[in-house]
Task: structure prediction
Amino acid sequence: HALASFWVPTHEKSFLVLFMTSGQDLGSVLANVVSPRLAEVKTWLVFAFWGGLAALWFLGFTALGASAPEVHGSCRASGEASWIRNGRRAGDFEEVRQMRESMVPRRLLREPCVWAIFAGHVGVNYMWYVLLSW
Result:
C-alpha cells in the first residue's frame, strides 16, 4: 500500500488495492494447483519454478520500477510525475522518506493501532491458510 500511495492518484487507489489483493489470493490458489504437479515430475522443480518466477519479477521491477514517480527518470521526463503528485495525498516523497527514517520502532510498538493492525493481519492470514488447506 505504501508503494501504491506514491504511484496512484487517490481516485484510482481503491481499484489498484483490489487488483493487488486479488492477485495475492489468486496466486496462492494457483500455487496450490501447480506445485503438486511440478512435484510429481521432480521435487526440486517446485522451488526452481517459483524461485525463477520471483527472480524474473524482481529483475523486471528493478529495471522498470521506482519507489516514487519523482525518482523515476521517464516519469519525470514526460511530466507524468507531476500529474501523479497532484492527484495523490501521500505528500512529497522526500518529506515522507525523512519522516519514516525518524520513526523509532519502540515508539510505534506503544501505539494501540499498531497492535490492532498486527492482530488483524495475523487473524486474516490464519483464516486464509485454513481455507487454503481445507
About this structure: The mean pLDDT is 82. The first helix runs from residue 2 to 7. The helical segments are 2-7, 13-41, 43-64, 73-78, 80-86, 93-101, 105-109, 112-133.
